[in-house]
Design brief:
Bound molecules: acetyl coenzyme *A, 3-methyl-2-oxobutanoic acid
Largest sheet: 8 strands, parallel, barrel
Strand order of the largest sheet: 2-3-4-5-6-7-8-9
GO molecular function: 2-isopropylmalate synthase activity; acetyl-CoA C-acetyltransferase activity; manganese ion binding
CATH class of the largest domain: Alpha Beta
Keywords: Amino-acid biosynthesis, Branched-chain amino acid biosynthesis, Cytoplasm, Leucine biosynthesis, Manganese, Metal-binding, Transferase
Radius of gyration: 25 Å
CATH architecture of the largest domain: Alpha-Beta Barrel
Distance between the termini: 62 Å
GO cellular component, one term: cytoplasm
Strand content: 15-25%
Structural class: alpha/beta
CATH topology of the largest domain: TIM Barrel
Number of helices: 17
Family: Belongs to the alpha-IPM synthase/homocitrate synthase family. LeuA type 1 subfamily.
Cofactor: Mn(2+)
Number of domains: 3
CATH superfamily of the largest domain: Aldolase class I
Length: 514
């Protein structure tokens, strides 16, 4: 069986999903989980795009030991230099350079002639080769490029030092037959193609990203690119978990295998969903809530007689287990620590103590603590910096009545440690809280999105709120969880504002304003 290398781009193309903005701690947490999931390569980000992105890529390069860490760069010396600064610490640093090759992109976006595109691509690959051994060149919008031109530029960038050639379907336009033919054409028409690996990178604009990726594999691609839960620019990227399971379940027709650890799918998917705030649709293949649910009588009858009647994938294969809760109000730190590890978390002593305290507080008001609750609690503890100066909620009270004006009274500490208290009103309880927080913070804040989910079932389930704020013109998402929906709403607001001021270039402004 041919081995297919998996290049995960959740942290780069996935983060390009509108509204998604991961901070360094969140990116590291996802990177560690991708390593556990068994990806061969992970694209940690686009180092030249911002200072915080640079810092995140550098931190991931230093952390990850069992996958190659890659960063994206335009065909520009400054992007390449910046990528090297961040990636040099990686065990196996890689560079991903892209330049568009389609007539539409060359003419309108780059405003370069085809000859100039070839020259720039070759010069920049040769320049990068002075630093990086492994260089992937992506011919952006390959699927809308002229085939002969694509073959010419490919041959030349291989000569210049590229080790992987990626042929992206950047706008999700191609079909499986066309995309397969593109890979065949390149194999047959680029004389030095045997020196490199061919990679597929598909977008889902027409809902064909996974099918197109598999067509590429059948026609010579030995690397596939995609994201967890299929997140990414516009309609997203090919969903890695769907490809991995399709190759496994239909191995009789697809004799290929990856190194992905299938029973890490659920955890990886949950983590990415939680940290990006992008909810997985219930009917999503492989990992949606309904993928293993059976509603109709005839199906349920079949399932009871033999699960294979209506299930081609077992929940266990993708890591979905019944919660085996053993923790409760009377559990001690040892049992808690064991359980934390079994859920895949490695916490420092300081974080473990913090998590244990949060767990104990939760047991005071919630009868049953499920693995889902713990996952939420631990993800919050692991990805929220305790050291950075920030706003912290001290207490709050909301008065609501159908004939009264909803009023919130909030006490908080600002990043300088000063205690602030204020009351404010709104048309509803959440608005009263948000108006009061905004007034306390003296910032210009607009609410762009607000969503609430329950973690698990039951009246005492945790509430999880995801929001997007515009703070002084800077858009940032945030999340908060608590047993009470209003408290979760307040935490989400404060989390979002704190994340804005954790951006290196904005910190100064915040402290100057205090
Ligand atoms: C298909 C993809 O997903 S590609 C990756 C897309 N991802 C992103 O864009 C996210 C990160 N991007 C950013 O933060 C910003 O766009 C930056 C920092 C990279 C650049 O910002 P700015 O300098 O303000 O430029 P802006 O984004 O407005 O325009 C892009 C410029 O790069 C040029 N460019 C685009 N692709 C390439 C390339 N592969 N190589 C060289 N130049 C390129 C464009 O032609 C344009 O140049 P111009 O300013 O001379 O017209
Ligand atoms: C940078 C390239 C690979 C890309 O993301 C695309 O073409 O979609």
């Amino acid at each position: 069986m041919a081995r297919i290398k998996v290049f995960d781009t959740t942290l780069r193309d996935g983060e390009q999903s509108p509204g998604v903005n991961l901070n360094q701690l969140e990116k590291i947490e996802i990177a560690k989980q991708l390593e556990r999931f068994g990806v061969d390569r992970m694209e940690a980000g686009f180092p030249a795009s911002s200072q915080s992105e640079f810092e995140s890529v550098k931190a991931i390069a230093k952390t990850i030991q069992n996958a190659s860490v890659t960063g994206l760069a335009r065909a520009k010396k400054s992007d390449i230099d910046c990528a090297w600064e961040a990636l040099q610490y990686a065990k196996e640093p890689r560079l991903h350079i892209f330049l568009a090759t389609s007539p539409i992109h060359m003419q309108h976006k780059l405003q370069m002639s085809p000859e100039k595109v070839i020259e720039t691509a070759c010069d920049m690959v040769a320049y990068a080769k002075e630093k990086f051994q492994q260089i992937e060149f992506s011919a952006e919008d390959a699927s809308r490029s002229d085939l002969a031109f694509l073959a010419e530029i490919t041959e030349k960038v291989i000569d210049a030092g590229a080790t992987v050639i990626n042929l992206p379907d950047t706008v999700g336009y191609t079909t499986p037959a066309e995309y397969g033919a593109l890979f065949r054409y390149m194999k047959e028409n680029v004389p030095n193609i045997h020196q490199v690996s061919l990679s597929a990178h598909c977008h889902d604009d027409l809902g064909m990203a996974v099918a197109n990726t598999i067509a590429a594999i059948e026609n010579g691609a030995t690397q596939i690119e995609g994201t967890i839960n299929g997140i990414g620019e516009r309609a997203g990227n090919a969903s890695l978990e769907e490809i991995a399971v399709a190759l496994t379940i239909r191995n009789n027709v697809y004799p290929y295998h990856t190194n992905l650890v299938l029973n890490e799918i659920k955890r990886t998917s949950d983590l990415v969903s939680k940290l990006t705030g992008m909810v997985v649709p219930a009917n999503k293949a492989v990992i949606g809530k309904n993928a293993f649910a059976h509603e109709s009588g005839i199906h349920q009858d079949g399932m009871l007689k033999n699960a294979s009647t209506y299930e081609i994938i077992t929940p266990e294969m993708v890591g979905i287990h019944e919660s085996d809760l053993v923790l409760g109000k009377h559990s001690g730190k040892h049992a808690f620590s064991n359980h934390v590890q079994s859920l895949g978390y490695t916490l420092s002593e300081e974080k473990l103590t913090e998590a244990f305290q949060a767990f104990k507080s939760l047991t005071d008001c919630k009868k049953e603590i499920t693995d889902e609750d713990l996952f939420t609690l631990l993800t919050d503890v692991q990805t929220v910096s305790t050291r950075a100066p920030k706003y912290t909620l001290q207490s709050f009270q909301v008065q609501y009545g159908s004939t009264n004006i909803p009023t919130a009274t909030i006490a908080m500490k600002n990043p300088n440690g000063e205690y602030l208290e204020m009351a404010g009103t709104g048309k509803g309880s959440v608005e009263a809280i948000y108006n009061t927080l905004e007034a306390l913070m003296h910032e210009d804040i607009q609410l762009e999105d607000y969503r609430i989910n329950s973690v698990g079932a039951g009246r005492d389930a945790l509430a999880e709120v995801h929001i997007r704020l515009k703070v002084n013109g800077y858009t940032m998402n945030g999340r908060g969880s608590a047993q009470d929906v209003l408290e979760a709403s307040a935490h989400a607001f404060i989390n979002s504002v704190n994340r804005v001021f954790m951006q290196p270039n904005l910190k100064q402004k915040q402290h100057a304003q205090m």
